[in-house]
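ok so I'm stuck.
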Amino acid sequence: MSVLGADVRRLVAGFPAESDHDRAVQADFASFFADDDGPVARDDGPHHATASAFVFDPSLTRILLVFHGKGRFWVQPGGHLEPGDRSIADAALRELAEETGVAPAALDEQYAYDLDHHALSAAFGRCASHLDIGVALTLDGDTALVVSDESEDVRWWPLDALPDEVPPQFHNRVAQVLSRLAR
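replied:
not stuck anymore, here's the structure
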């Protein structure tokens, strides 16, 4: 039984599905994580879990994004789960630190999160899709940022002026995460 698989399953079961779209995403994730040994590692097949961090400033008017080299778009920091990760939140915070240099404290148990299953282009190699669990948090917008080897740029963006180069449905995803976080 995988600790990460169990955490994904717990998050999927507890997802606050508020629309038909949310219920469809929840059912899709549940089909991949019917048991605690779902696809949590990159080696578990072409469709596997990832973790990401939606980081907003305290005023909830800006979001921290990285320019993803493979995808050629701006997106929230995130990536593959690693064997040492104790939870999805832990993996998201590790990815945030690796990709931006920002290392916040652990999230509490009641954090807001998002589920998004998205297909990937051939630029991502053997990964055909990611079942991404995005966690939401706020951080001081003046924190020093570091550009990693995986990204070409890291910066804060005003929510009312997001870049044009974002993945499909990114605007909707940000709005939903922000709504959950603001509650």
